[in-house]
Amino acid sequence: MSEHTITVAGVSVDTRHWIGGERVASAQTFPDVSPIDGCTIGDISRGAATEAAAAVAAAKAAFPAWAATSRAERARILHAIADGVDKRIEELAIVETTDNGALLRSHRRGVMPRVAHNFRFFADWLLKLEHEDFETRGHTNHVSWDPAGPCVLITPWNAPLMLATWKVAPALAAGDTVVLKPAEWSPLTASLLADIAAEAGLPAGVLNVVQGYGSEVGDALTSHPDVRRISFTGSVPTARRIAASASANLTPLSLELGGKSPLLVFADADLDLAVDLAVEQYDNAGQVCLAGTRLLVEEPIAEEFTRRFVEKAAALTQGDPRDEATDIGPNIHPRQLEKIDGFVRRALDAGARAVIGGHRNGGQYYAPTLLTDVAQDSEIVQEEVFGPVLTLQTFADEDEAIRLANDTRFGLAATLATGDPQRAERVSAQLVAGTVWVNCFFVRDLQAPFGGSRQSGVGREGGTWSFDFYCDLKNTVTAP
Ligand code: NAD
Predict the structure, then answer these.
(1) Which of 187, 214, 303, 389 is a plausible cystine mate for 218, CB 3.0–4.6 Å?
(2) Whole-model pTM above 0.90?
(3) Start and end of every Aldehyde dehydrogenase domain (predicted)?
């Protein structure tokens, strides 16, 4: 075992970058700390401009051969990567839980199998990707999906491998080469993915993984002139910096950003379902971009809804994310906990009432919190907290519900609970959101477009939309 390998819950993880098919160490490192107990898991290579340049050079060198590889062969290798993920689900699950504190049971049963699915889905979608040829005054128009070039993919820590592979899989399928930079708070599973891809036969340089801080290696990657696409998932302030870096080269961007999504509960809703949906918003300790953190409840049922919500939320078990019985784990980092607590303190100072929670819960845990008596223009209603903190406001009628729901600079998602299908249709049509869920939450099919309106993002990914982004579409017009 190399001095650069650490053992995480029995799994060996290389702490170096993966560039051009080789492990590369940086002289400097950064500590990777587990949110479960605050202990350092290991020291990870801290890349900067040199490593960014090397990774982009490797991706550029590997691009012509990968772009020329047949669709069938690319799809075959993506399926082999999926098989490799399937074989290592247990290892990926425990490593990611140790790294970011999300529930082991969801990693095992939900997230990691879906990571494998992400590769299979985009491999299969590639094989059926086609535009019909059409004629213009006897000339044939043929549209082709040409690979675009090296892509930089930058991802956050809240669902590291899931979010990374939503990008890596379509980019590789499209014939692009990739430099993946995972978040510095959860760097480990990206390193394992590099191993899995190499074992599956992905040629050297097609997938590169660089580790480090966004302001260092991330900035060097996004301002690199040889990069042909940047896909970023993360916060709005970082997106602004990335857009500024990308502007020098006019590099096309896909941005999946934050949210402050509403969950509308109408008086005609199945109340048990509505309460379940609301409590579900605490999943992943509230660190979910799509979470419906603004509960908007119709006045006549607000009291009963709150009573049942409190009962259900009080039954949630908070604790070690490795325990099967745990519902809510820790928040990612002391800095994030501080941020969450700051939001709640300021809301309470401004007159909000904590129906439940409103305080830390020892270690890196924050008690599931519900705040009422909040003003529509207050910080707690307008800003993304990214912790287990919900607000509850009431509305008198449908118009007011829609007005409150849309009164935000975000537009990622919206959820509504109603027993009236016509109302569902009417309200959905008026909500500004990339995804609207009616009487359900978090159902995502990779065929569907996914992304945010307003400041929740730029562009859509999923199915053909992903290929639109990762390919240079070309129309060839041939005379009769
Ligand atoms: P973040 O913006 O702080 O960091 C995300 C990534 O960007 C990290 O890898 C970081 O190292 C990198 N980065 C930071 N500065 C950079 C720079 N100057 N140049 C290049 N890269 C840089 O976000 P976070 O705290 O890791 O994640 C939480 C945010 O992500 C929340 O706002 C959440 O809503 C959002 N998110 C959105 C989606 C979505 O699909 N819309 C999904 C998950 C999370």
Answers:
(1) 214
(2) yes
(3) 27-475
Can you give the residue ranges of every domain in the chain?
A: 5-257+456-475, 262-438
Ligand 1 contact, 376 CB (< 6 A): no
Report the candidate in 41, 295, 321 with the shortest Cα–Cα distance to residue 191. 41
Is the Cβ atom of 99 under 6 angstroms away from ligand 1? no
Place of tokens 């939900």: 110
Which residues are part of the catalytic machinery? 256
Query: Rounded to an integer, what distance in angstroms lies between the CA atom of residue 265 and that of residue 38?
Result: 38
Does an H or E element contain 99, and which?
A: helix 89-100
Q: Please name the residue whose Cα sits nearest to atom 14 of ligand 1.
A: 214
> What CATH number is given for 262-438 in this structure?
3.40.309.10
Residue to mutate, 235, 242, 454, ligand 1, most ligand atoms under 8 Å from C-beta: 235
157 lines ligand 1 (CB under 6 A): yes
Please give the backbone phi and psi of residue 41, each rounded to the nearest 5 degrees, phi first.
Answer: -85, -40
CATH-assigned architecture of domain 5-257+456-475: 3-Layer(aba) Sandwich (3.40)
As for the ipTM of the complex, it is: 0.97
Whether the CB of 259 sits within 6 Å of ligand 1: yes
CA distance 201 to 135: 41
Q: Which residues contact 253 (CB under 8 A, 6 or more apart)?
A: 229, 230, 231, 232, 242, 243, 246, 458, 459
Q: Whose CA is nearest to atom 9 of ligand 1?
A: 183
Give the neighbor-by-neighbor strand order of the sheet with 435-438. Answer: 353-356, 369-372, 389-395, 294-298, 262-265, 413-417, 435-438
Residue (of 221, 203, 227) closest to 150 by Cα position? 227
Nearest protein Cα to ligand 1, atom 23 = 234
Could you tell me if the CB of 100 is within 6 A of ligand 1?
Answer: no
Do 18 and 6 meet the contact criterion of CB atoms below 8 Å apart? no
Please tell me if the domain spanning 5-257+456-475 has the same topology as the one spanning 262-438.
no
**Residue 341, ligand 1, Cβ within 6 A:** no
What's the 155 CA to ligand 1 centre distance in angstroms? 6
The closest-lying atom of ligand 1 relative to the alpha carbon of residue 185 is: 26
CA of 236 from ligand 1 middle (Å) equals 8
Calculate how far, in angstroms, residue 166's C-alpha sits from the geometric centre of ligand 1.
15
Q: From atom 16 of ligand 1, which residue's Cα is the shortest distance away?
A: 214
